[in-house]
Design goal:
CATH class: Alpha Beta
Structural class: alpha/beta
CATH topology: Purple Acid Phosphatase, chain A, domain 2
GO molecular function: hydrolase activity
Helix content: 25-40%
Keywords: Signal
Organism: Umbelopsis ramanniana AG
Distance between the termini: 59 Å
Protein name: Calcineurin-like phosphoesterase domain-containing protein
Pfam family, one: Metallophos
CATH superfamily: Metallo-dependent phosphatases
Bound molecules: 2-acetamido-2-deoxy-beta-D-glucopyranose
Order of helices and strands: HEHEHEHHHHEEHHHEEEEEEH
Length: 311
């Protein structure tokens, strides 16, 4: 019996990779915060790039970076360069890299430089050169203003902070958030965050700042998350932004909220972790050790009806 299972497994492992219906491999990595060396180490660990930072994901990998590449470290230019190059290489190989906006990207775009390190400014040559770089037509601003705030890949939602159901349009789902960002970001930048955000998408409860799913009480937050996922037709939400101090990926709400900001930057202790999703198998890769994140299929009562009443 055991032998038969072993044989079947062997057969399966030989047969599966040859079929063209392989599920895609989704890899997600969160906050990099100015640390090129450890970011590269994490991407290598997750088999996204090789030691020369070249794409090795082939045509079967979708890599998502959930924002906050900048601040708290010096390597802003090197990291944005690497991500743009990886995105091009992935595209050429038939794969995909999806960098998203985090709250620190938006902060730098509106001139909120509270977390910018002096060593970072030096890499630009001068303060003025860095200001120019983050303008809408600057070499970093041009790249950042094109990025989305959220993405959904095969029923997994990715964002920086968390998407409260109030930001989900019942007809267009996530597209509303991304379109809003592209319609309003320039006005928000030009007014240094004063105008252009009537709906609060860039604000403290918006998708790049929300911490409810990471920190709020589960009996309140899980029904909200369930509602958001129901509206989006998704199974789980993967988020950065809230640092997991032990350097490991954690999940809440029965595996529906997955928290992947493990503090990759030197500013947080240079931890190494990534998330890998293949089909419905969700695996945390913590410092090279793979642990499956399981769910029991629990469902929380959706709050959709009451939310509609409130509106
Ligand atoms: C999407 O996920 C489902 C399981 O949830 C899996 O069966 C399917 O192969 C996945 N599709 C791709 C393209 O990865
Ligand atoms: C993906 O790459 C593999 C290996 O290089 C190749 O055999 C396969 O045909 C490619 N699939 C597609 C859809 O391009
Ligand atoms: C941004 O998201 C929209 C859907 O919301 C998608 O159509 C578009 O291709 C995305 N753009 C990038 C650069 O990923």
């Amino acid at each position: 019996m055991l032998l038969a299972i072993k044989y079947l497994l062997l057969l399966a492992s030989v047969v599966l990779p040859a079929t063209c219906q392989d599920p895609i491999r989704i890899v997600a990595v969160a906050d990099l915060h100015g640390d090129y060396d450890n970011s590269l180490s994490v991407l290598q660990m997750a088999d996204v790039v090789n030691e020369k930072a070249q794409w090795i994901g082939g045509n079967n990998t979708i890599f998502v970076q959930t924002g906050d590449v900048v601040d708290r470290g010096a390597d802003t230019i090197r990291l944005y360069d690497m991500l743009q190059r990886i995105r091009n290489e992935a595209h050429e190989a038939g794969g995909q890299a999806i960098p998203l906006l985090g709250n620190h990207e938006v902060m730098n775009l509106i001139g909120d430089w509270r977390y910018v390190y002096p060593e970072d400014v030096e890499t630009f040559g001068s303060f003025e050169a860095r200001v120019k770089a983050f303008e809408a037509d600057g070499f970093i601003g041009r790249y950042l203003t094109q990025l989305n705030m959220t993405a959904i890949v095969n029923r997994t939602v990715f964002c920086h902070g968390g998407i409260h159901p109030a930001f989900i349009d019942s007809r267009t789902g996530l597209d509303w958030i991304n379109s809003y960002v592209h319609e309003h970001l320039l006005e928000y930048m030009e007014s240094k965050g004063k105008y252009g955000d009537d709906e609060g998408v860039f604000g403290g409860h918006g998708p790049t700042w929300y911490r409810g799913y990471a920190l709020g009480p589960e009996d309140e937050e899980c029904p909200l998350l369930e509602t958001a996922l129901e509206m989006l037709g998704a199974d789980r939400m993967v988020m950065g932004h809230t640092v997991q101090r032990d350097g490991k990926v954690h999940s809440r709400c029965d595996g529906k909220a997955i928290l992947i900001d493990v503090g990759i930057s030197q500013a947080y202790g240079r931890h190494r972790a990534a998330l890998e999703i293949i089909g419905d198998k969700v695996v945390a890769i913590n410092n090279g050790k793979r642990t499956e994140i399981k769910t029991t299929g629990k469902k929380w009562p959706s709050k959709l009806a009451t939310l509609r009443e409130e509106l």
